[in-house]
């Protein structure tokens, strides 16, 4: 699953043309779906009007080739506004990011989801993270809503995730189940074991060659390749990511800039990497490319310079 960054121009505005170019390029690597204006796309830092702009540009670039699942969520009014604009833009569904600031009861969280689903005809995937803590009971109830089609786990409690999977199965619904942890490739082996076969890949946005090679190894049972990529690329990337809060997004944008794509900085409160971290990221990108065999991905030029300015 492809989660594109939101590029900003020199004036800090959404760079619609660059967004379209990046989406079209990444479609060549065969993502199963495109998720604009979500976590990697800095949903938290976008106005409702900017979310609508990002979703429209993405839908136009995709041209119906794969589903487009738009980000929505936050305060209820903002969530409804972005959901409605996503439907108007031609999106195929919504990923519901957590409510803003407050946590409620199971009744309250279910009510929040149902208020958003009532506002449009779009199906939704709920995101289990931060202030949105779904229980097996909540997912059992939400499975009764035909517009709720999926569950994405961003908490990382394997035991609870297993309970939710079992509860969802007991309803008879076939929900789409996603691993949504940061750098999900590192944990996907465990998630597959509890019945969550899908995952989102932030790496796909900056290094689709490696992300695609990992996915092919994952679905094809090539454990030697999968472990080689985990050990040589993903594990050190996670170590760098964990140095600074918010680097799950910041490093992806920095990686694109390192490859000559002027996507601009992240917006506050996130911060961009230091020059030293940028250079180490560049080294990691090259390491990832070197790990690929000739048949793993399209030919790619090595990243030979620092971050493009």
TrEMBL record:
Keyword Methyltransferase: no
Domain of life of the native organism: Bacteria
Catalytic residues of the enzyme: 127 (proton donor/acceptor), 152 (schiff-base intermediate with substrate)
Keywords: Lyase
Listed EC numbers: 4.2.1.41
Pathway: Carbohydrate acid metabolism; D-glucarate degradation; 2,5-dioxopentanoate from D-glucarate: step 2/2
GO MF terms, alphabetically ordered: 4-hydroxy-tetrahydrodipicolinate synthase activity; 5-dehydro-4-deoxyglucarate dehydratase activity
Family annotation (Gene3D superfamilies): Aldolase class I
Stored InterPro entries: Aldolase_TIM, DapA-like, Dehydro-deoxyglucarate_dehyd
Binding positions (pyruvate): 40
Keyword Lyase found: yes
An annotated GO BP: D-glucarate catabolic process
Reaction equation(s) it catalyzes: 5-dehydro-4-deoxy-D-glucarate + H(+) = 2,5-dioxopentanoate + CO2 + H2O
NCBIfam families: PRK03620.1
Family annotation (HAMAP family): KDGDH
Protein family per UniProt: Belongs to the DapA family.
Record-linked PANTHER family: 5-DEHYDRO-4-DEOXYGLUCARATE DEHYDRATASE 2-RELATED (PTHR12128:SF19), DIHYDRODIPICOLINATE SYNTHASE (PTHR12128)
Entry protein name: Probable 5-dehydro-4-deoxyglucarate dehydratase
Taxonomic placement: Bacteria, Bacillati, Actinomycetota, Actinomycetes, Micrococcales
């Amino acid at each position: 699953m492809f989660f594109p960054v939101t590029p900003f121009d020199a004036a800090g505005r959404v760079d619609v043309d660059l967004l379209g170019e990046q989406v079209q390029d990444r479609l060549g690597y065969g993502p199963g779906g495109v998720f604009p204006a979500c976590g990697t796309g800095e949903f938290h830092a976008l106005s409702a009007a900017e979310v609508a702009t990002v979703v429209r540009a993405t839908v136009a670039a995709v041209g119906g080739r794969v589903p487009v699942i738009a980000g929505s969520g936050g305060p209820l009014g903002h969530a409804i506004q972005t959901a409605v604009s996503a439907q108007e833009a031609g999106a195929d569904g919504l990923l519901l990011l957590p409510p803003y600031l407050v946590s409620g009861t199971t009744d309250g969280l279910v009510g929040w989801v149902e208020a958003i689903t009532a506002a449009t005809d779009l199906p939704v995937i709920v995101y289990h993270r931060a202030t949105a803590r779904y229980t097996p009971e909540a997912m059992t109830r939400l499975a009764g809503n035909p517009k709720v089609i999926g569950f994405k786990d961003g908490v990382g409690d394997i035991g609870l995730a297993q309970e939710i999977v079992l509860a969802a199965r007991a309803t008879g619904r076939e929900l789409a189940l996603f691993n949504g942890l940061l750098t999900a490739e590192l944990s996907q082996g465990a998630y597959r074991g509890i019945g969550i076969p899908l995952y989102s890949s932030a790496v796909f946005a900056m290094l689709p060659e490696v992300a695609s090679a990992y996915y092919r190894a994952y679905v094809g049972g090539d454990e030697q390749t999968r472990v080689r990529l985990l050990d040589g690329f993903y594990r050190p990337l996670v170590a760098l990511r964990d140095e600074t809060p918010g680097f799950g997004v910041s490093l992806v944008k920095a990686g694109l800039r390192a490859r000559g794509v002027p996507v601009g900085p992240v917006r506050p409160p996130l911060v961009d990497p230091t020059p030293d971290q940028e250079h180490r990221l560049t080294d990691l990108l090259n390491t990832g490319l070197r790990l690929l065999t000739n048949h793993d991905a399209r030919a790619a030029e090595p990243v030979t310079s620092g971050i493009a300015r």
